[in-house]
Amino acid sequence: MTLADDNGPERGGDDLFAAEYVLGVLAADEREIASRRIDADAAFARLVDAWEAHLSPMAAAYPETEPPIRVKEALDRRLFAAEPRAGLWSSLGFWRGLAAAIAALAIYIAVPYFRPSTEPPQARLVASLAAEGSDVKYLVVYDAARHEVGLSHVSGERAAGKDFELWMIEGKKAPVSMGVIPAGATAHLAIPPAVQEKLAQGAVLAVSVEPAGGSPTGQPTGPVVAAGDLKSI
Fold first, then answer.
1. pLDDT per residue over 144-173, tens digit each?
2. What is the C-alpha to C-alpha distance for residues 210 and 199, in angstroms, rounded to an integer?
3. pLDDT tens for residues 183-200?
4. Do residue 79 and residue 177 come from a single domain?
5. To pair with 19 at 20 to 30 A between CA atoms, which of 49, 84, 135, 217?
6. Residue 223 is part of which domain span?
């Protein structure tokens, strides 16, 4: 069952079905249905085209990289060992299911923000936040029309008694707090009017580690564990 089945037309219907097709999370039989509809249903084909255009910046946010040779060697040992280990962690079905679940979650987070609309392109900005030496990663979508930021927590945990806080950095000016990031896989932050006026393509967002409840000084007091610049989609 896909998100389209779970949520029905109220949660997106054909729109969400097209998004699932573009992200490749449909089961084989559902993907075949979608492929036939693209050939026979012009309206559905346009939805697929729109989602491909709207989601392509997400891929562009991650530069191509060459994995270390040890990664391939480890995969070869796991896949082609004479006596492969049994169990959940060596189950190909488990990893496929996990990948599909993560992609489905990404759709659930992205649908309200990436849905094709008549809004001007600059009304939605996206940033991938990461930093060298840190495992904290966030995908951030700023929706100017809603005056809010949606965050998807990709990886990295906060320490006990600590919080992550989101900051906007405008040139050489002092960072401006956008609020403490609630714990969980997804979060939404309402953006104060003063920050709304400053957010624009190219603005830098950063995540710092702060005491529980946020910075006591109004400026970052802990290490910056993720950062990235906003780009229009």
1. 888 888 898 888 999 999 999 999 998 888
2. 23
3. 988 888 998 887 887 886
4. no
5. 135
6. 121-232
